[in-house]
Amino acid sequence: MDEIQLDERKGSILKAVIDTYLKTGEPVGSRTISKFSDLHVSSATIRNEMVDLEEMGLLTQPHTSAGRIPTDLGYRYYVDHLIMEREQESREHELLIQKVDRMEVLMQQLAKLLAQNTQYTAMIAGPHLGKKLKYVQLSQAEPGKLMVVVVVEGNLIRNFMLPESEDLTPEELLGLNIMINSTLNGLSISEINLGVINELKNQAGKYRDVMEDVLSVIGEAIRSEEGEQPVFTSGATNIFKYPELSDGEKASGILTALEEQEQLVTALSTAVNTEKANGISVYIGSENRIESMKDCSLVTANYDFGEGMIGTIGVIGPKRMDYEKVVATLMGLIEQLNKMYH
Amino acid sequence: MDEIQLDERKGSILKAVIDTYLKTGEPVGSRTISKFSDLHVSSATIRNEMVDLEEMGLLTQPHTSAGRIPTDLGYRYYVDHLIMEREQESREHELLIQKVDRMEVLMQQLAKLLAQNTQYTAMIAGPHLGKKLKYVQLSQAEPGKLMVVVVVEGNLIRNFMLPESEDLTPEELLGLNIMINSTLNGLSISEINLGVINELKNQAGKYRDVMEDVLSVIGEAIRSEEGEQPVFTSGATNIFKYPELSDGEKASGILTALEEQEQLVTALSTAVNTEKANGISVYIGSENRIESMKDCSLVTANYDFGEGMIGTIGVIGPKRMDYEKVVATLMGLIEQLNKMYH
DNA sequence: TGTTAGCACTCATTCAAATAGAGTGCTAAC
DNA sequence: GTTAGCACTCTATTTGAATGAGTGCTAACA
User: Fold this and answer.
1) Is residue B284 helix, strand or coil?
2) Residues of chain A with C-beta less than 8 angstroms from the C-beta of B250
3) Which residue in A234, A162, A160, A109 sits closest to B103, CA to CA?
4) Quick check: A251 and B240 CB within 8 A?
5) pLDDT at residue B2 is higher than 80
6) Cβ(B135)–Cβ(A141) under 8 Å?
7) Picking from A147-151, A258-262, B227-231, B274-278, which range would have the lowest pLDDT averaged per residue?
8) Which end of chain A is more exposed for a tag (fewer CB within 10 A), N or C?
9) Cβ count near B29 (within 10 Å)
10) Among B323, B326, B249, B241, which Cα is nearest to B291's?
11) How far apart are CA B253 and CA B260, in angstroms?
């Protein structure tokens, strides 16, 4: 791809056009730029420059006698070259993250926080893990029912009830627990193969039946965790704040995509590839994978909760989103998470 | 309130008007009714009757020279008197409910099922419980970290890690577990008072510190469960299928309301009061509590998972929703749940 | 007394034409 | 290289006329 380089004045004009367009959402005319930018030149000069910018594919006109709006490429140049980093500012008011026990609650909270702060739509994908088994606990919750608690990496907990099982004494349970944990802890699903399983069954002796039930339950727990990758969203209705997205057709498409978890996962997880220096990726318009989001931009960042729990958090908004603010907010959030969980 | 009673022909006309309007969403003229209903009278006669129905407040005209549309009162009469029960039919194709371990998964699944079947928006409120403590399990997940698993009624599970705790032997843990469970099991939060707490602390002896941590964690678990009453929705974007709801303003309002959990809880929980014989409630237009849903209707039913876990499930759609189908679907769903969980 | 045909009237919707206004491209002068 | 000026283009808004669905009312009819 050709590297586009603009001289200083063209850069200023492009930035002025985009900055104005971000605020108004209306095509920007040469007169406006001439009056409100700090390079004191007439509208005619601006027009000449604009023609050049249009030829370079950075600006476009919705119709002949209208002002200019940025193309996807224009936004791209803006994001890559013209945005001032303003990290300092955003750090002043820290986002209030509460420490919680359940991952889902934390994720939902983060999404809400992000949506409220940016006034766009936030989404967050749960960590995609190798999912190692961390701990298994058998216990007799009530007579006739054996409870199996399976703790997977990242404190994702699953629990199952085995009904109609024979009652075991606390001592018997303790023995089984130790047996299971000493063999299985730290193994991922692929490592729990037939060999390990048979060994456990043999060790179990007279508890062989129970052990079989328990093993199948563990398998189910890990497998289902591997399969689903939860995505949480918040502030979906913020898109109605932006007229260019809020007409029936588009809004419907976007909201439907937000409801379809699988699509989101795709959109977010491809985000890992094209990355900027600060770990933040920006996808503008047609750079998005999801068809119905081609009028949107997506800004993503990867978070790290430790224990290999790496996931993606992102903001979806109109192409004319306040990229500076969103990037700054995301960076602040990530940094804060790092402080809390390391 | 006056009891409205219609003679047979007026009833037929009202039903014909509403049935037609349900399908088209357009005002219904006298000619249409005259042609397509089975009471063979001229449009003029229909018009005369319509004037009466309008005077009674059951129909209205959007403007002078348009056909009639039902008022909220008209829908009310329709729902109360004119709907044929068609329970049989819907039972043929049973909804496919999978049995799952986690309540949230089940609820989400039910909502999705309901939304897909009705093509409206489904919502379901989690059971509002006394929340009794069912089981507590202490264990040493890894060195230096004590894991507390708290099982609340309905298999709602919370887990907490107590970091930096002293290591305990399996025997010590067993002792503590038995101590805690024999004292606390089956108590609700209001029953775990200072007396019980002190008794436990004293029993704990040298483990007093650990016990204190554990108790505070248990308290937190139950309290947070009591506070939050999760609501799941599905098919929110279905409202875009109905033009009268899908223009920007309204759609935004409705979707926002759907995102705000508290509002939904209000809407659903007031549903318990005004109940029809079959356990299903219908709220039409302004009968809804939520301002932004005054153009919608809400049909709710109460479900019962056993163990006192009673909650509400509902369908939101345009006022011209297919009440018969929705009511039948809901009844089928409830019945099926009863079969599965009793 | 209830039903029907006929007709004048109302009002939303649609379409085309006229108008206003924003903004450009181009040229010529500075 | 910059600027003023002007013709030109195209959208958005307004206006008015035509269309048509549907009503209300009256008078005739069974």
Assistant:
1) strand
2) none
3) A160
4) yes
5) no
6) yes
7) B274-278
8) N
9) 19
10) B249
11) 11
Q: In sequence order, what E strands does B110-166 have? A: 121-125, 133-142, 145-152, 156-163
Number of H helices, E strands in chain A: 13, 10
Amino acid at A210: V
- B112 phi/psi in degrees, rounded to 5: -60, -45
Phi, psi dihedrals of residue A283, rounded to the nearest 5°: -115, 120
Partners of residue A247 in chain B, C-beta under 8 Å: 248
Q: Which nucleotide is nearest to A39 (CA to C1')?
A: D2
Range in A327-336, B4-13, B151-160 the model is least confident about: B151-160
Segments of A10-169 assigned E as strands: 59-60, 69-70, 121-125, 133-142, 145-152, 156-163
Handedness of CA A196, A201, A202, A204 (dihedral sign): positive
Cβ–Cβ under 8 Å, residues A229 and A265: yes
What is the Cα–Cα distance from B182 to B177, expressed in whole angstroms? 8
Is A237 an 8 Å CB contact of chain B? Answer: yes
Crossing angle for the helix pair B8-24 and B43-55, to the nearest 10 degrees: 90
The residues that bridge with B316 in the sheet, in sequence order, are B121, B298
Interchain proximity B251–A240, CB inside 8 Å: yes
In the block, which residue shows the tokens 């309290």?
Answer: B223
Cα A143 to Cα B136: distance, rounded to the nearest angstrom: 15
The per-residue pLDDT for range B17-75, each reduced to its tens digit, is 999 999 999 999 999 999 888 888 989 999 999 999 999 999 999 988 888 999 999 99
Q: Which of B272, B322, B319 is nearest to B293 (CA)?
A: B319
pLDDT digits (tens, 9 = 90+) for A280-298: 889 999 998 888 999 999 9
Q: What are the structure tokens assigned to B120, written together? A: 């409206």
CA distance A97 to A332: 12
Q: Of A333, A330, A329, A318, nearest to A25 (Cα)?
A: A318
Best to test chain A binding among B142, B149, B169, B232 (most A CBs inside 10 Å): B149
Residue at minimum CA to C1' distance from nucleotide C10:
B65
Q: Extract the tokens encoding B223.
A: 């309290």
Confirm if B255 and A237 have CB atoms less than 8 A apart: yes
Contact A147, B139 (CB under 8 A): no
B63/C6 CA-to-C1' distance in Å:
23
- Reduce the DSSP state of residue A114 to 3 states and report it: helix
Supply the DSSP string of B228-247, one letter for each residue. ---EEEE-GGGGGGSHHHHS
Lowest-pLDDT choice from A279-293, B75-89, B151-165: B151-165
- Sorted by sequence, the CB contacts under 8 Å of residue B185 that are 6+ apart come out as B133, B134, B135, B136
First-to-last alpha carbon distance for chain A, in angstroms, is 40
| pLDDT per position as a tens digit, B223-240 | 666 656 778 999 999 999
Of A141 and B155, the one with more pLDDT: A141
Q: Is the pTM of this model over 0.85?
A: no
Distance between CA atoms of A143 and A117, rounded to whole angstroms?
A: 50
A53 beta partners: none
